[in-house]
Structure formats: C-alpha cells, structure tokens
Design goal:
The model has no long low-confidence stretch (mean pLDDT 88). Strand 1, helix 1 and strand 2 form a beta-alpha-beta unit. The chain starts with a strand and ends with a helix. It has one domain. The chain contains two helices and two strands, in the order E-H-E-H. By secondary structure, it is mostly helical. The protein has a two-stranded parallel sheet.
Length: 72
C-alpha cells in the first residue's frame, strides 16, 4: 500500500473525483503525486497487488484542527 494524496485531483465542486473518472489537476502537488505513484507502480511485480490510497485530511471542529491551531 502506498499513502498517496487526494490533491492529485482538480478542485471540483460539481461532482466527486474518483480513481475511475476523476480529473487530474495540475501544479506542484499534482506533479509530486503523479511522480510518486508512477514510481510506486513501476516495475514488474506479478504476484503483488499495489494500491495507492488517495487520501486527504478533512479539517473541521475536531482534534486535527485544534492541534494545528495550537502550533501557531
């Protein structure tokens, strides 16, 4: 498993992005994400299932936000 990033997708407010028909964005973070995934999936490993988890932190009124605000 590879911890990739959901910021690989273009910002979208009309519909969701997913691995089937999501729209890949552009810019620095997308360049890093596509390079990271390309390296992860490169090479011949026929007996190995590879999964790139495209995750992102969602901030709200919770512990992650409080921890980040405490850093300031």
């Amino acid at each position: 498993m590879n911890a990739s990033t959901a910021t690989i997708y273009r910002h979208e407010t009309e519909r969701g992005n997913d691995e089937v028909d999501g729209v890949i964005g552009d810019g620095f973070s997308v360049d890093v994400a596509t390079s990271w995934e390309r390296a992860f999936f490169d090479g011949d490993l026929p007996a190995t299932r590879r999964v790139a988890l495209r995750m992102a932190i969602v901030l709200g009124d919770g512990p992650a936000t409080r921890m980040l605000l405490a850093l300031g």
